[in-house]
Write a structure and sequence with these properties.
Largest sheet: 7 strands, mixed
CATH architecture of the largest domain: 3-Layer(aba) Sandwich
Number of strands: 9
Strand order of the largest sheet: 4-3-2-5-6-9-7
Number of domains: 2
Strand content: 15-25%
CATH topology of the largest domain: Rossmann fold
Shape: elongated
Low-confidence stretches: none
Structural class: alpha/beta
Helix content: 25-40%
């Protein structure tokens, strides 16, 4: 009979660290459903960030070809050793993923991979943006996040949750909420409910686009969210109103439009026009 999480943690004298955003899942049915939603198979390599006590890791290992986990808390090593003792396809790297170069991480993964993780809330956005902007071999992310963050990631232009990160995701693929998870499913229970969101990468969606330039325009467009786009362009690029108006007119964008109403496609068009005019921030 497998030990409960509470028993396992107590035996190893483990205490949760708020600084690491540690909230562990223990419901086997829920864990299995998360892996099911990921769509991984025996041909897939999986990157897991923050395996915690290894409960999700164990479920992933049963379906994947290879699992590489990055864990920041070295005090979890004896617990992970016990939980994953017979999972020969799992490698745990005790390192801060945010300090690891993407090239180094992807070299260890050895090819195309899927990220499946219960991400620490405090680092969700930095991790997502790091992999969206730098990863070369990422196929998809299936990640547990705060429900409000999941809504932001999957929103559409013009909606209240829509923001710069939504555009960043849309530039690389698409995002869908695939599962909602109430707070009481975690140990310890957080103050908010969660959701599993799947971000599917489409390498051909905006092939040939200068993503760095588009992200620059997006950053400027959302620099003062409630201001009209023309004002943010003027401030961000240090250009006159006439030039900003000309840019918007060339992109077929209303002179009274706000950045929060532009889709990724329209940001791509806008960035091309700005680049053609040789305008830099």
């Amino acid at each position: 009979m497998e030990k409960s999480l509470k028993t396992l943690l107590a035996e190893h004298g483990f205490s949760f660290k708020k600084a690491f955003g540690q909230n562990f899942l223990t419901d086997d049915n829920l864990l299995d459903e998360i892996v099911e939603k990921s769509g991984i198979s025996k041909d897939d390599t999986v990157l897991e960030i923050g395996p915690g006590a290894g409960a999700l890791t164990r479920h992933i290992s049963k379906r994947a070809k290879k699992v590489v986990c990055y864990e920041i808390d070295t005090k979890l090593k004896p617990i992970l050793d016990e939980v994953l003792y017979n999972a020969d396809n799992v490698e745990v790297v005790f390192s801060d993923i945010m300090k690891c170069p993407i090239e180094q991480v992807e070299k260890k993964l050895g090819g195309k991979y899927v990220m499946v993780a219960n991400l620490p809330y405090y680092i969700t956005t930095p991790i997502v943006m790091k992999f969206l902007e730098q990863a070369k071999n990422l196929k998809a992310m299936v990640i547990m996040v705060q429900e409000e963050v999941a809504l932001r990631f999957s929103s559409s232009a013009g909606e209240s949750d829509y923001g710069a990160i939504t555009v960043g995701i849309d530039l690389r693929g698409s995002a869908d909420i695939v599962l909602r998870v109430p707070r009481e499913k975690f140990t310890p229970a957080p103050n908010v409910d969660s959701a599993v969101i799947k971000i599917t990468i489409d390498e051909n969606k905006f092939k040939g686009v200068n993503f760095e330039k588009v992200r620059e325009v997006v950053r400027i467009a959302f620099s003062s969210r409630r201001k009209m786009l023309v004002n943010n362009l003027m401030n961000g690029y240090k250009i006159s109103r006439d030039i900003a108006n000309e840019i918007l007119s060339s992109a077929d964008i209303s002179l009274t439009e706000r950045g929060e109403n532009l889709s990724a496609e329209r940001f791509v068009v806008l960035s091309k026009i700005i680049a053609e005019k040789g305008i830099k921030s």
